[in-house]
Specification:
Helix content is 38%, strand content 20%. With 279 residues, the protein is α/β, with parallel strands linked by helices. It folds into two domains: 2-170, Rossmann fold, CATH 3.40.50; 183-271, Pantoate--beta-alanine Ligase, Chain: A,domain 2 (2-Layer Sandwich), CATH 3.30.1300. A six-stranded parallel sheet has the order 1-4-3-2-5-6, sandwiched between helices. Strand 3, helix 3 (71-80) and strand 4 (85-87) form a beta-alpha-beta unit. The longest helix has 16 residues, at 121-136. Pantoate binds at residues 24-26, 54, 57, 125, 128-129, 147, 150.
Length: 279
């Protein structure tokens, strides 16, 4: 496995290859990322993972400075699952000057839910992802469903900008108790880690309510928020949305997703669950 730190070296390493599958990450890898690499490997071409903590997608009060940088361990994990190349640029390599040319994704998709609570987040994500796409020139790019809205925003960008890239979605990897794996789970204390599973449980409770015939989305959302608050969480949102565009469901919509973001102590967790309304 080759580890490249500059755009020129990565381009040289990839020269003459075709069919690259790309997995962008911010490092501090866990089993969920490794599952994405395994999915990327199924496409047959070389697999490139990037590790870059992207300042552009963090607000000033967020955890950019403290986000764990664990390159040595990450590379060992990537090697163990057969990743071929790691692109780990410095900030100066990717942003030698302040990045003034940025991507503004569709506000209808990017300014709701996460975008409402993290203004500018998807501008930062799309800007770095487009830049990485232009560097790696992959045939396939793999993103996790854990970041459901991110996956949709990227798919939309790829479609609208006619990028010749197939976006592949990987399922959310979960711990035995159901907590979605996330690099930020490492911030949780032991007690918080035990409590954290409640977020996934609330999404499953919404699924059970749908199966029992309830269609009063707003009440279901409010009840989940209320239960989380009573357990000590600070929820940003619990939302039942259409899978196709993340808008509020109408009476005929069957393919839904429940999404949630909430703070436990100082750690902000997100999760989602795809749901199908029984006919
Ligand atoms: O999902 C992530 O880890 C990041 O948002 C991404 C896609 C690597 C862009 O920095």
């Amino acid at each position: 496995m080759r580890i490249l730190h500059t755009i020129a070296d990565l381009r040289q390493a990839l020269a003459g290859t075709t069919g690259t599958a790309f997995v962008p990450t911010m490092g501090n890898l866990h089993e969920g990322h490794l599952a994405l690499i395994k999915l990327a490997k199924e496409h047959g071409g070389p697999v490139v993972a990037s590790i870059f903590v992207n300042r552009l997608q963090f607000a000033p009060h967020e955890d950019f400075d403290t986000y764990p940088r664990t390159l040595g361990r990450d590379c060992e994990l990537l090697r163990s699952v057969g990743c071929n190349m790691v692109f780990a640029p410095s900030e100066n390599e990717l942003y030698p000057q302040p990045q003034t040319c940025t991507v503004r994704p569709d506000p209808a998709l990017a300014d709701i839910l996460e975008g409402r609570f993290r203004p500018g987040f998807f501008n930062g994500v799309c800007t770095v992802v487009l830049k990485l796409f232009n560097i790696v020139e992959p045939k396939v790019a793999v993103f996790g469903k854990k970041d459901y809205q991110q996956l949709m925003v990227i798919r939309h960008m790829v479609r609208e900008l006619a990028l010749p890239i197939e976006v592949v979605a990987g399922e959310t990897a979960r711990a035995d108790d159901g907590l979605a794996l996330s690099s930020r789970n490492g911030y949780l204390s032991e007690a918080e880690r035990a409590e954290a599973v409640a977020l996934a449980q609330e999404l499953r409770a919404i699924g059970a309510a749908l199966r029992a015939g309830r269609r009063d989305w707003a009440a279901l959302e409010a009840e989940a928020v209320d239960r989380l608050v009573r357990r000590g969480w600070k929820p940003d949102y619990v939302a039942v949305r259409r899978r196709v565009d993340l808008l509020e469901p109408g009476a005929d919509d069957r393919e839904l997703v429940a999404l949630a973001a909430a703070r436990l102590g100082t750690t902000r967790l997100i999760d989602n669950l795809e749901l199908s309304v029984p006919a």
